[in-house]
Write a structure and sequence with these properties.
By secondary structure, the protein is an alpha/beta fold. It has a single domain (20-292), classed as Alpha/Beta hydrolase fold, catalytic domain (Rossmann fold, 3-Layer(aba) Sandwich), CATH 3.40.50. Helices cover 36% and strands 19% of the residues. The strands form two sheets. It has an eight-stranded mixed beta sheet with strand order 3-4-6-5-7-8-9-10, sandwiched between helices. A two-stranded antiparallel ribbon has the order 1-2.
């Protein structure tokens, strides 16, 4: 009889293979240099740009955002950080603020309570609450509440998927098209394999919770423009998740642009938003201009 570790538990993969495929850290020598860059450039943005810090969007201590205005009636790009739902914060998430505000797009660096203190259901609820709050209150900060765009990487890419999913809007008092466009980078859109490997130590998902929080299973009736990207050195499973989500989006007739960036890894890919000439920045700003112009 094969051991439990040798058994095929997902798409023909045994546990050892599955753990490797969902271990983003294993694709780089060390993650610390990338995290240090996120933090350092974000700190520079807070020190040099007009901003409103620690704006509360909900009752919890973690339910805050930093807002970087871009003039009156500006569209807003809400960035949701990664960290496998258990690391990082808004303080690491404003590195694109200089480029975007110069282009006339306000930036929000979004905070949420981390796992395991918060369940994934609660993290998703907080992100949706933040969008509803911006829709109701954004004009106080020069934001056009009808021009909300979202973006995120890794766990943040998953949360982007949950913001453009169906079925939550009425509970939060917003229209189904409250999000006008989205950028999902290196995200996870079907959480069943995540439930079966190491991240579930802090997510604590059962099968129902994994399905409930899988964007691939909750595609909307009407989809906004979507950009999906991944790095060339990511594992096959991370690439597959992005490709399948994009394919499902396109199959419904929704606008979708996909691009892999062969020279990027899971951690440096999102730093392309610092470069105004990168494809990711150009595609994102063009999406926003196309929807708001």
């Amino acid at each position: 009889m094969p051991s439990t570790d040798d058994a095929k538990i997902y798409r023909g993969m045994d546990r050892t293979t599955l753990e490797r495929e969902y271990n983003a850290r294993g694709t780089v020598d060390a993650i610390e240099p990338f995290l240090e860059t996120y933090a350092a450039v974000s700190a520079e943005m807070r020190a040099t740009l007009p901003c409103h810090l620690d704006v509360s969007y909900g009752p919890g201590d973690a339910e805050t955002m930093d807002i970087f205005p871009a003039g009156p009636d500006a569209p807003v790009f809400v960035f949701i950080h990664g960290g496998y739902w258990r690391l990082l914060s808004k303080d690491d998430s404003a590195f694109m603020a200089g480029v975007f505000t110069q282009a006339g797009v306000a930036v929000v660096a979004l905070n949420y309570e981390l796992a395991p203190a918060a369940s994934l259901d609660e993290i998703v609820r907080q992100c949706r609450s933040a969008i509803a709050w911006l829709n109701a209150n954004g004009r106080e900060f020069g934001i056009n509440s009808e021009r909300i765009f979202v973006g995120g990487n890794s766990a943040g890419g998953h949360l982007v998927g949950m913001l453009v999913s169906q079925g939550w809007h009425a509970d939060f008092g917003v229209r189904e098209n409250v999000v006008k466009g989205a950028l999902a980078v290196s995200g996870l859109f079907d959480l069943e394999p995540v439930r079966l490997c190491a991240p579930n130590a802090w997510l604590r998902l059962d099968k129902d919770a994994a399905a409930r929080n899988s964007p691939l299973l909750h595609l909307p009736g009407r989809g906004c423009p979507l950009l999906v990207s991944w790095g060339g050195t990511e594992t096959d499973e991370f690439k597959r998740q992005s490709r399948e989500y994009a394919s499902a989006w396109s199959a419904r007739g929704f606008p979708c642009t996909t691009f892999g960036l062969s020279e990027r890894n899971h951690f440096d890919i999102i730093l392309d938003l610092i470069d105004p000439e990168s494809r990711m920045t150009r595609e994102t700003l063009a999406m926003i201009a196309g929807e708001t112009g």
